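<instruction>
Derive structure tokens from the sequence
<data>
Labelled lines for chain and fold:
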Amino acid sequence: MKRLLIVDDDARFRTLARMLLDDAPEFEVVGEAPDGGSGVAASQELGPDVVLLDVHLPDVLGFELVPRLRGSDGPEVVLVSSRDDDGGYSQLAQEAGAAGFLSKHDFSSAAIARLVS
């Protein structure tokens, strides 16, 4: 089971994501954070295996946060997500060191599992 942290400023999306992932046997949601600063702190405190990271956070772009999260003790996988369709986000996610990009329109535990494995 992979421990997952959700970093997203949209409380409704965090709630929906948690509900969908709580029903998935391959994931355990260990925490949530509404912005980049608290996301980094939560990642350091909780030690998740996977971070689901929104592109547009109130204090930083998700792409800029990926290297900070992936530091020496960071999660093995960071996935970047957005309400927007790809529009080059896959390339930017890869360049930042993320495992991939997931449109929120395509969000599911199966989609995350494909990107994590």
Notes: Residues 14-100 form a domain with the Rossmann fold fold (CATH 3.40.50.2300). The radius of gyration is 12 Å. The helical segments are 11-22, 36-46, 62-69, 89-96, 109-116.
